[in-house]
């Protein structure tokens, strides 16, 4: 396996293991040779003691080395067989490893279901390194993705992604990950129905849906096409219109972070109580994060009253970071994430602009469902995505609005540093989802 320049040490794990054995063997030979030379003229008593100590040292070292190898093989073997039940392994903590053998998991140019805003190589991106990074957790491996196993798990079931365009990004990723395993085009279809997009694997009677609901409750941004409003309004007590779409789902993956972020420092939102029809409408203005809590409260209440804990699995995706401020990783802000080709390698890196508090807030609300036996699994993908400043479409995507001369002259001004190229980072998010669905 070849690696990018200057990073050979990051992807030569197997070679490193072999080198370790070679170094040990060579060291042992030198030690034995040195021992023979040293004790040649030593007294018999001293010679026996030294010989015994050297033999003991070699034996102990061998045992330790073999035990380390067996532990590592056990960990690798367990995860390759897909046993992801070890709760001590934190999938979210790890590093990106360059892997041009097992990555990418699919060919983006051949995925008929890919969306033009994330098909970066189709729209001119020449460097494809972003497709070849594999996420490696510390101390274990992610379960190996198997599309057929997932489709069997989804047989006669419905999986629904509910949220914004980043959640749609993850939905497209999963569809591309599974559709390549259905070679007959007659056995897979995509259906558009307003805010709902459905992918159906007919042979399995499996449905993978995406439903546009960026603020979870009803809002003035619910139109899947025209939703870029300067001031957002949510209806605090209205969720049933959206919930009726996902009510019968077997698996639901929610996300809702991006639309609660401030676009300007003084940005606030309005929360509507009551209705104009009943004549009791009331509007309160508040901070974006307070609106987020109102939406979470309503969602949690609905889940607690309507979810069949024995049927439906619920997931909530962590915040997907943007990379619009290059100064976070030592770059020039005017470039945003333009021309980035490698991840951030600093372990534990967290951008100053990435908000981890929203996920903590979501967790606190979902904990209130635990006494009812309803568990919401968080897909903790924020930190691993924070490293990937190279993974965004930037200018390599379909532009739905014609570019101005000023934009063309300044590519960073319209570079997309929010969504993700496919194949790419969202594939790992779906490996997390796969692990929870198939192996945990």
TrEMBL record:
Residues 87-141 form the Trichome birefringence-like N-terminal domain. Residues 142-434 form the Trichome birefringence-like C-terminal domain. It comes from the Eukaryota. It is a single-pass type II membrane protein. One of its GO terms (cellular component) is Golgi membrane. The chain crosses the membrane at residues 44-67. The keyword DNA repair does not apply. Keywords: Golgi apparatus, Membrane, Signal-anchor, Transferase, Transmembrane, Transmembrane helix. It holds the Pfam family PMR5N. It is found in: Golgi apparatus membrane. InterPro entries: TBL (IPR029962), TBL_C (IPR026057), TBL_N (IPR025846). Coiled coil: none annotated. GO terms for molecular function: xylan O-acetyltransferase activity. Belongs to the PC-esterase family. TBL subfamily. This is Trichome birefringence-like N-terminal domain-containing protein.
